[in-house]
Amino acid sequence: MDTITYETRDSGVAVITLNRPDVLNSMNPQLLDDVRAAIRMARDDSKVGAVLLTGAGRGFCAGADLAAGFKAPDASTVGDGVAHGMEIGFNPMVREIAELPKPVVCAVNGIAAGGGVGLALAGDVVFAAKSASFVQVFGPKLALVPDCGVTYFMPRLIGMARTRALAMSGDKLSAEQAADWGLIWACVDDDKLMDEAMAYAEKLASGPTEAFGDIKAVLDASLDNDLAAQLDLEKETQRKRGNHPNFAEGVSAFLQKRAPNFVR
């Protein structure tokens, strides 16, 4: 994996670092493939309980690498090339991060622009350094629409009015404002970003991984379900979770006034 680094910690955290700092970790086809491969490795490793995603250098991710061009099938248009790249690379990557049945913590260490915003928001818990910012360059700079899930995540997190204004203006949203609006979990001092994000990821990695995966699933389903359907989903998910050994361990630990010892 030439465009990222991947390491697993004894604490159960898999750390994925975008590693194209000379171009602010912009996404080319190789990086998309490498991130997807790393997500699969984390998914399949029973010792991994959580993922921490960040970027090397002074930026998190500047979006798509426009210098990479838009390779498309023969006799197709430029637009076909753009859509083809989304179909085979960007969209599967975002889905695989969002649907990973393990918690994903993102540490945004600088600019998140264009598709880099969607990449960050695909995570479950987002920390950002005070110097970081989020900017949608699609419309005002490229005459495109936001992608990488930005049009899905942003309205649900901060509302349609703010999302429309940011998408059309291309104005930078500071990390502090993003936290105040609820776009991200926390804005922290630059020199504390990785320590705080790692501590949070380690906390999640020590917990009941399968239960966290189910929490992600039921929350995602709530966006489309009515109340009755959501209550039924909660009931059936609790049926499954109640039959798992971790529930019995959690009850025993509670009654014995000790910390639970969950299995992954």
UniProtKB/TrEMBL annotation:
Pfam families: ECH_1 (PF00378). Transmembrane segments: none annotated. It comes from the Bacteria. One of its GO terms (molecular function) is catalytic activity. Belongs to the enoyl-CoA hydratase/isomerase family. This is Enoyl-CoA hydratase. It comes from Pyruvatibacter mobilis.
